[in-house]
Protein 1
Amino acid sequence: MNNEPEIVLDDEHELVIERVAAIDVAKASGKVCMRMPHPSRPDRRMSKVRDVDATTRAVTELADDLLGEGIERVTVESTSDYWRIWFYLLEAAGLRVQLVNARDVKNVPGRPKTDKLDAVWLAKLTEKGLLRPSFVPPAPIRQLRDYTRFRVDLTRERARYWQRMEKLLEDALIKVSAVVSRMDSMSVRDMLEALIAGERDPRRLAGLARGKMRPKYNALVEALSGRFDEHHAELARMLLDQIDALGAQISTLTTRIDELLAALIDTPGPAADGSVRDGDGEVELMVTGLDAAERLAEITGIGPVSAQVIIAEIGLDMARFPTAAHLVSWAKLSPRTIQSGAIQRSGKAGKGNPYLKGALGEAAAVAARTDTFLGERYRRIVKRRGKLKALVAVARSILVIVWNLLSDPTARFHDLGPDYYTRRIDTERRARNHLAQLAALGYRVTVEPAA
């Protein structure tokens, strides 16, 4: 056992930022604490605490006051969405603002809980550099994120309307969902429109099947033999109108997202389409968000929509995440180890960004069914760790690939192949291990190479 002391360099936490401010955020107001050197006693520091209304005028005036006091850093507590007015206006005024999760900084046993004490505590942690700020993307990425998140929400809402449609058909004794794999297919839509128009003959309804559903004609006839009446038709019409309206809104959002991605310019570097521009006498290549989305869509399991969601959630500037491990840790996809004495155990992954984890989870589920490197990785892990942990591991691998592609604009995705692991096996070493195991069991083995 090594008894030598471990040296930990922690100088950054000993640095005192002379002038800081912290804001304990509420819905209608915020408790602002400014900490700075005492004017008459250089060895002491003082705190100024006051209430500020959560309005544009009041926060703008606060920004002017903070600039006048020479505040070097401002900490804002991330309470619901109430932090946005504080962060956006103070950042726009030129202040260095950081957003922190209150759950990570206020859990101190024995400390009284008041807004004033919370603001002072946040300010003290800020001046010592003990806070880890949350990731807040720049304004163009935030705008793109609003569109992609709203599209995800509308897509989920449309799926719920299809579920309501399925329940309505079950009430009408129509069992079409037991025959078809997707309720939103064109064949089902034609059958629903015919039912609403008054058609009740199951054979004629089944005859509307298209493509691969035609061989299911007999099963469709049985499934469409029900009691679909006028009240079912009226409700089905309303549901289809809602589904169509949501579909139109989703299409509008998709068009707008494509426009924002095309206008989103990253740091100069090679573009996927090879476009160039001149700058200071040199030819530089520009990378747009659309270029990045096209390169991410080449990853196994990731489609155009998922690529857009990923860019909206993590941005294009990977300088915020020094390594892929930093990005994986921020997304709460990295393995967590809990150690107490000689006991070590694995802990649960955190919640992370739900939209990013949702996109990566869907991509991992798709990749797991493919004959690729990621699919083989899933099959190797699922044998010993189970399906859920295998999917998380594949999602983590996908995020590592994303980081590498966004960090290097010249990089393109190249699948390593399902035989990647077998190609790296040292066959001689494995043979020696097997022979040693057989010898330990009392066998004498003679090995001859295959013809």
Protein 2
Amino acid sequence: MIKMTSQQDIPLYEEVVNGFDQLSDKMSGNESSGLRRTRRQAFEKFRESGFPSIKSEDWKYTNINRFLKEEYALGVAAAPASADLVGTATIPDLDCHTIVLVNGVWQKGSGDTALPLGLELLPVDEARQNVNLSGLFERSEGGKDRFFTALNTALFSDGLFIRVKPGALLEKPIHIIHAFTAAHNLMVQPRHVWVIGERAEFNVIESVVSAAGEARIWINTLTEIHLHADAKLSHTLIQSAGAGARIVNHTTVRQKKQSLYNNYTFTLPGADLVRNDLQAKLEEDHTETHLYGLYLAAGQQLIDNHTLVDHQQPFCFSNELYKGVLLEQSTGVFNGKVFVHQDAQKTNAFQQNNNLVIGKKATIDSKPELEIYADDVKCSHGTTVGQFSEDALFYLRARGIGEAAARALLINAFAFDVTEKIKWNAVETHINRLISHHIPVTS
């Protein structure tokens, strides 16, 4: 029987509740009254609910009690990251513009100084105090959640604001390196807002890395993406933070008419906990959404992917494929939901989750869902959980390939359906190299 933890027994909860007024005064600066009100409302939600437990349906299979036992300081503490740490996220042979953030704070002296025309970047610390932009932070979609997104909405201080001007065609990708480092246990809460204008095309790659050390770091990130009519966004996320990192990452995408959103999420061994909440809201007709994910878990790592594809209007298409490989004593969770509103006739929506459970003590909880209120749709979903094919292993070993190398080949083949979707060859090569690093290729 799992013992439930009282919120009063969680030092971080007490730190947040007791220090909110002081922290919010520090964060507010010249913020609008609307944003201050939004912060207060979000804080009240969090104070009432606290951190999630397995009593919450969305956290039923993700017990985070063991990650909440230590004390954490709240803040940014954004000292420059080492060149070695940033170097671990560099993608060889990728022609791109590079932006470096440390604990959510843009390091303007690192990466590119000249950015392409049509692209505007601002630290969120500036954007949230801009009267023309503050409205984007006042009506937070993510803030409707009463747990981590409410906490982020209440206490975020910095992050990256991106605006792509209408009609801008930015073929060269932007590589955002999120480096996290701390000398003592720390909780940071970056907030990112991206606005992609009408008919614009944008490609972004995010890499998440963290410094090795004894300190624990909670990374509670909220990203809101506004994709306007006829806009196209290719969004790749590579999570390879190290041990001691606990990551909760919430992304909400709001899509307008005839927009296209492609997401590729790769989670590698390292961080103690990774929880990805990805929500795509297809708010106007003829939108298109593709979600691809690959998670490779090892040790006692817990990786949880929650997705929601919200079909609100007719003639929209979505396709989702997530694959997982569970090693050693790791735990995987997949919960994907496709919601089709009554007005969303002529919807095409497909969802699939496949898993390889290799570790004898590894587990996976997979829960694909369809909730449909329209009657003229084509929707399907499915999930599989299996182990290595003994016939395939025998075939490879009979040809002189060692057992470890044969297993590595089969894992790469299993992952191929996701990795081959990547637009950039250099990124695909980089991902395959990261996978191989965690899967021995020799006997």
